[in-house]
Design brief:
305 residues, mainly alpha, Lysozyme, 2 domains, two-stranded antiparallel sheet, two-stranded parallel sheet, 11 helices, 8 strands, globular
Length: 305
C-alpha cells in the first residue's frame, strides 16, 4: 500500500509540474503580445483605420498603407469665404474647388488671401498629376521592351502633349514655378473677379473653338463672330488645361526650352510675352505681381499627402 501511495504521489507531482509549465508559457505569451501591441497605435483619418508603428523594437513588421492623391482629394463647392480652407503653412491640403465665390465684394487683403487659398491647392494638384506622369515616362524610356498597356499609355500622352517623340514628351511635361502660375492667374482673372472665373472656373480666360464642349460666350467679339471661353468643372481642371496649352502651343516653344534650364521665375517670365497682346508690358506686369505680392515663397509649397 505504501508503494502505491508513493507512485500516485509522484504522478500527481508530475501532473502539477506539467500544468504549471503550460500556464507559465501562456502567461509569457500574453505578456509578449501585450508589449507588442503597446508598440503600435491605431489612427482613424477620415473613415479608414490605419495601424502605424510607434517604436522600432518589435521584430514584427506591419505594412503601413500610403495614401495616393486620389485618396486624399477634398472637393468643396464654397458658398461663402468661410468655406475656403485657409493655407497657413507650406504643407497644403489637396483641395479642389468646383466653383468660385463673389470675391469682388470683399476687402482687398481678404480677397487676395482667399484667392490664393483657392488657387494654390489646385495648382499643386495639377502639378502633382503631371509630375507623376512625367516620372512614369522617364521610367518607361529606360526599358528595352514595353508592355502593350505601357505603349498605349505613352501614345495617349504623346497625343495630348502633341509631342514628336517620347523624349520630346518628357521635355514638354516639365513644369515651371508656382509663383508664375499664381501671377498669371491674378492678372488674367483680376484676383478672381472676372466673369469667366465666377461663372466657368476659367482662371486664365482660355478660349473655346469646339461647339461640343462646355463653354460660355464672352462679351467681346472678333468681327461679327462671338468669342467663347471654356467652362470647367473645377479650378484644378482649368489649371491643368493651362499647363497643356503652354506645353503644346508653338508660341511658347522658347519658354519651354528655358524652363528646362532654369527655375528662376523672374527670368522665365521674360519668355511669356506671347501670352498677351501687351507683350513687354505683360512681362513687366508679371514681374511686378510676383515681387509686390511676394509670390516666390509659394514655390516651396507642396501637397500634404
Amino acid at each position: 500500500m505504501k508503494g502505491k501511495t508513493i507512485v500516485n504521489l509522484n504522478k500527481i507531482i508530475y501532473s502539477l509540474s506539467i500544468l504549471l509549465s503550460v500556464e507559465f508559457s501562456v502567461l509569457m505569451t500574453m505578456m509578449l503580445f501585450d508589449k507588442l501591441i503597446d508598440g503600435y497605435t491605431v489612427l482613424k483619418p477620415l473613415d479608414k483605420a490605419v495601424i502605424t508603428q510607434k517604436v522600432k523594437t518589435s521584430p514584427l513588421l506591419i505594412r503601413v498603407s500610403s495614401k495616393t492623391l486620389e485618396d486624399s482629394l477634398i472637393e468643396i463647392s464654397p458658398n461663402s469665404n468661410s468655406d475656403v480652407v485657409s493655407i497657413d503653412t507650406a504643407l497644403v491640403k489637396p483641395v479642389i474647388y468646383t466653383k468660385s465665390i463673389k470675391l469682388s465684394t470683399l476687402g482687398i487683403a481678404e480677397k487676395k488671401k482667399i484667392f490664393i487659398d483657392m488657387m494654390l491647392p489646385s495648382i499643386l494638384v495639377a502639378k502633382h498629376r503631371i509630375t507623376e506622369d512625367r516620372k512614369k515616362v522617364g521610367e518607361l524610356l529606360k526599358k528595352e521592351k514595353l508592355l502593350p498597356e505601357d505603349s498605349l499609355w505613352l501614345k495617349k500622352k504623346k497625343y495630348i502633349f502633341k509631342a514628336t517623340s517620347y523624349h520630346d514628351l518628357y521635355d514638354k511635361m516639365e513644369l515651371h514655378p508656382t509663383s508664375i502660375i499664381i501671377a498669371q492667374a491674378i492678372i488674367e482673372s483680376g484676383w478672381g473677379t472676372s466673369r469667366f472665373f465666377e461663372e466657368a472656373n476659367n482662371v486664365f480666360g482660355i478660349w473655346s473653338f469646339n461647339e461640343s464642349e462646355k463653354r460660355i460666350v464672352a462679351s467681346e467679339k472678333r468681327g461679327e463672330k462671338n468669342v467663347y471661353v471654356k467652362k470647367y468643372s473645377s479650378v484644378e481642371q482649368s489649371i491643368f488645361d493651362y499647363f497643356i496649352m503652354l506645353s503644346t502651343k508653338n508660341a511658347y516653344e522658347e519658354f519651354r526650352e528655358k524652363r528646362l534650364e532654369s527655375k528662376d521665375p523672374l527670368h522665365l517670365v521674360e519668355y511669356l510675352g506671347q501670352y498677351s497682346e501687351l507683350g513687354e508690358e505683360y512681362i513687366d506686369n508679371l514681374k511686378n505681381t510676383i515681387q509686390k505680392n511676394k509670390l516666390i515663397v509659394y514655390d516651396s509649397y507642396h501637397l500634404d499627402i
